[in-house]
Amino acid sequence: MKPRKYERIAVLVALLCSPLWLSALPSQVGTSLRISFRERLAPVYETAESLRVGLRTIGLGFANAPFLFEENRFLKAQRDVLIKHEETFRELQQENARLRGLLQFKEESPHRQIPAQVIGRDLGLFSRTLLINQGTQRGIRTGMPVVTPMGLVGRVSEAGPRVSRVIGITDPHFRAAALLADSRVSALAMGTASGECVLTYLPKEGDLKVPQAVVTGGGNSFAPAGLAIGSVAEVTWDSSGLFRLARIKPAVPWAALEEVLVVSWTVSD
Prior knowledge:
Blueprint (H helix, E strand, L loop, with lengths): L1 H16 L1 H5 L3 H82 L3 E11 L6 E4 L12 E4 L2 E9 L4 E5 L6 E6 L5 E6 L5 E6 L10 E4 L11 E10 L6 E7 L8 E6 L5
Antiparallel strand pairs: 1-2, 1-12, 2-5, 3-4, 3-12, 4-5, 6-7, 6-9, 7-8, 8-11, 9-10, 10-11
């Protein structure tokens, strides 16, 4: 019984929704009913239309999937190319800035300077050395100071015809006359086995403030006076307790060196 009852209800609803019987009514009544039914069925129409549009969009998405995947790969490749170009541009800017600084420093220096490029380095346990691409054919000799616009890098320890070896200020074999810029106290700057540069033989008396600039002292040393070595980072006592030591923060970052200048300078200059 129940199924037949539901069938009759369904038929009745279909007839009510059908426009056929509305046309048999007087025009004013039919129009009014049509408007009323449309208003009541508007949400149904909207849902059906949204469903149709959604299904159409999904269908277009599946149809265009191969093209979209290919376009995505192309855009990713273009992005990678742009990133590489940006990195190259940034590196060229940095190199240009370094070279301008070297050129300006070279022009302002009273001594002849030979530009060179770092082609190798030794960061062994007890050594801090560089290899540069200039040698005796360009006038480089053992003992010449090596600098950048920021300060002293080290000195030439070996000079070949086209390649030279440079020991840095943190190498255990490095020694240079030094001067504390503010207190005007002379000392010896030397590298250590631990890869630091320290000032030794500082007097027991006097106020050694931290930080304080340290420069080359000139005199009979291998380098002209006034080149920046670094700044005092810490003051301590040596093991004997007779002298003070000062640990130096180098002015030139060793790991970032790419270009240097070799100063053609002798003590007689």
